[in-house]
Amino acid sequence: MSDNDDVPFNRNFPLKAGIVEEVRPGVRRVLCNNPSPFTFTGTVSYVVGQGNVAIIDPGPDDEAHAAALLDAVCGETVTHILVTHTHRDHSPNTARIKRATGATVYAEGPHRASRPRFESEKHNPESGTDRDFVPDVKVAHGDVIEGAGWRLEAVATPGHTANHLAFAWPERKFNFVGDHVMGWSTSIVAPPDGSMIDYMESLDRLAAREEDLYFSGHGPEIPDGPRFVRFLIRHRKAREASILHRLAKGEADIPTMVRAIYIGIDPRLTTAAGYSVLAHLEDLVARGVVATDGDPVIGGTYRMAS
What we know:
Blueprint: E1 20-24, E2 27-31, E3 44-48, E4 52-56, H1 63-72, E5 77-82, H2 94-101, E6 104-107, E7 137-138, E8 144-147, E9 150-156, E10 165-169, E11 174-178, H3 196-207, E12 213-216, E13 222-223, H4 225-248, E14 252-253, H5 254-261, H6 270-286, E15 290-292, E16 301-304
Parallel strand pairs: 4-5, 5-6, 6-7, 11-12
Antiparallel strand pairs: 1-2, 2-3, 3-4, 8-9, 9-10, 10-11, 12-13, 14-16, 15-16
Helix pairs in contact: 3-4, 5-6
């Protein structure tokens, strides 16, 4: 969803599905063949370590991708499976990999929304959530997961989903950031699944850390990660300013705001853009800057509070 030139996106990602690429010593990646407007060229799964390894984000319910991952670790032992979050393009293949390897599954917990659903809300069509996923081990912020020659620290990064975690490798200055930060596009934050308030706090948390090479759930690695995060923070603040600019002209519903703000957007992303605007509005209503009648929902009408 990049209608903007203010973030230095990189869409150069020639990796082909099913091929194992050692992107840095101790880090391999395998692309799943599930391209879409939301997943770019597909979901990227990572293999961490050598000999005794961890797999991060086994990907969607996809037998070919599971086979490619198992092929990538042929002759090695998978001791850990780590899951950043429970969207259907990241966690469902966990069951296949666990069956094949007996590895222990680590994640923040089962899927949950960022806030209770309002009475007036319909089901969110963008959710694409994996409601069957349950980890063997629930991981909290700051927990350390160790294997042979690697040590990963869980970093709570809610926002894209409530249960989103990044896995930092402080010794190597690497961070596996899932969908919280992507090099090819901004992340979708769609309430009630996601929360812009949480998302912005999580960006600040990442920007304050030492890790500078990010491995993302989609697209290429991101060098100088904290600098890129600062671009994303500025971008979100500019998006908020655009919403306030439109509301300064008078009351508006979300489709009206999307048309005013996302010029030339891919029509397939219009719904997602609407939820992104809603995420900002939810934050603005909570801060008392914007008003609406009733709960802040996708079908609501919004105005400046003063």
